[in-house]
Amino acid sequence: MQDHQHGSHGQHRVVVIGAGYAGAIAAGRLARRVRSEGVAITLVNAEPDFVERVRLHQLAVGQELRPRPFAEMFAGTGVQLRLARVTAVDADRKTVTATDDHATEELPYDTLVYALGSTWNTHDVPGTAEHAHDIAGRPGALRLRERLAALGAGQPVVVVGGGLTGLEAATELAEARPDLDVALAARGALGDWLSPKGRRHLRKVCDRLGITVHEHTRVTAVDADHVTTTAGGIPASATIWTTGFAVNPIAQATTLKIDTTGRIEVDGTMRSLSHPDVYAIGDAALVMGPNDKPLRMSCASGVPTAWQAADSIASRLTGTKPTTVPLRYFNQCISLGRKDGLIQYVTADDRSRPAALTGRSAALYKELVCKGAAWGVANPTLGLPTRRRGVAQNPTPAPHPTTANAG
């Protein structure tokens, strides 16, 4: 019989579910911190390629993205890739149910890294699921790409949501397809969280690209050819829905401690508050940042949580002292088409500072950030000593904190 800590070969089984920025980085970083004879790392993901989520608005408007196959990314690292969809997690029996085209199987784990991320949030607005398009994942972006390609000159497209994703989608589309009539519907004022300099620049770009901005406008229904708002109807041959993210619902069906949005509650090492053998990272985790504000769902939040979880697990397995890093923000990077951008500098807890970088230099900066994020997935130990440590004879579960505190 296999003991509680190890699989059949005496290896500690780490299963990472979800290979977005957070999951892929955590798997790669852990593999480079511990010796493979002591640990078996399995990464479960539905697609064989890494999806650059921060570029899906580019894919949607017809640009080609460089393929990034996991087989190449993880070659020689010891990470085993399992191409399957996660359909259930049993946190008490310590198993993950994975389904592919051929079969469903249960994968047992000793440590689970939960990184299933998020998808679009329809907020149950009538008609959204049927008629709107999302760019929260590659399948949605490809469907939208097909729809946009079929639209002729002068046809109206409405982007719903004035946050970062909505701004990037509207400006990218207006730049790539100046023949379309692009509108943006925002619940508040345009860029109302930005600094005055940032807001001015954003308005200037929307004017230059011919985007019609509907401010203080809530969309209450979506139909095939228009959206209904609190201020009346807006024609839409295609509707792009970008009003925030909702987490994958799998955690809600488990005994893991979650918040009202379905995010897993964790401590400063990214460890579940209810199940010490589960770590949650990225959009799936409720991580407290400076001033006890939860981190927002973003690549900027997800990557440091992945580093933290990988290092915490490595410390636990090798018997070294775990460290926690303060999780904080520095800037918000917004692409406004390929030739313009906005880098809004922010406080540690994500409030806008007066300073902002705009225009061509901001576009170049954002491009470097996107490239750097993808590079970081393939090179997750940046700045770390690459010496792999052996696993301790009996990796002891660290004393489990009762309160979450991540800086």
Descriptive account of the structure:
There is one protein chain. The chain folds into two domains: 12-119 and 245-328, FAD/NAD(P)-binding domain (3-Layer(bba) Sandwich); 125-241, FAD/NAD(P)-binding domain (3-Layer(bba) Sandwich). The strands form seven sheets. The protein has a five-stranded parallel β-sheet, with helices on one face. Residues 1-5 and 401-407 have low confidence and may be disordered. It has nine helices and 23 strands. Helices cover 25% and strands 24% of the residues. With 407 residues, it is α/β, with parallel strands linked by helices. Helix 1 (21-31) packs across helix 9 (360-378).
Total DSSP E strands: 23
* Content-based structural category: alpha/beta
Name the CATH superfamily classification of the largest domain: FAD/NAD(P)-binding domain
What is the CATH architecture term of the largest domain? 3-Layer(bba) Sandwich
End-to-end distance, in Å? 42 Å
Instruction: Return the CATH topology of the largest domain.
Output: FAD/NAD(P)-binding domain
Q: From the structure provided, what is the oligomeric state, counting identical versus distinct chains?
A: single chain
Please give the CATH class of the largest domain.
Alpha Beta
Taking pLDDT < 50 over at least 5 consecutive residues as the criterion, the unreliable ranges are 1-5, 401-407
Rg from alpha-carbon coordinates: 22 Å
Instruction: Note the beta-strand portion.
Output: 15-25%
Shape, principal axes of CA atoms: globular
Mean pLDDT: 90
Q: Portion of residues in helices?
A: 25-40%
Task: Note the total helix count.
Answer: 9
Largest sheet: 5 strands, parallel
Number of domains: 2
Strand order of the largest sheet: 3-2-1-7-19
Pfam family, one: Pyr_redox_2
Domain FAD/NAD(P)-binding: 13-310
Family: Belongs to the NADH dehydrogenase family.
Region (Disordered): 383-407
